[in-house]
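A quick aside before the break. I want you to see a complete sequence-to-structure record at least once, exactly as it would be stored in a machine-readable document. Don't worry about memorizing anything.
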Amino acid sequence: MFHRSARLTVHGRRLIVQRHQAGWKQAHIAAAMGVSRK
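That is the input. The structure line, written in tokens, reads:
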């Protein structure tokens, strides 16, 4: 179970992987998701 404002839901993690595979830089992915890049 997750709360409504959770950033890293299953869908969110899928977006991160897709963006990484598309060649996005780590910092850009983190900024787009609103999370730390570490």
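Two observations worth writing down. The chain has one domain: 1-38. The radius of gyration is 10 Å. We'll return to this after the break.
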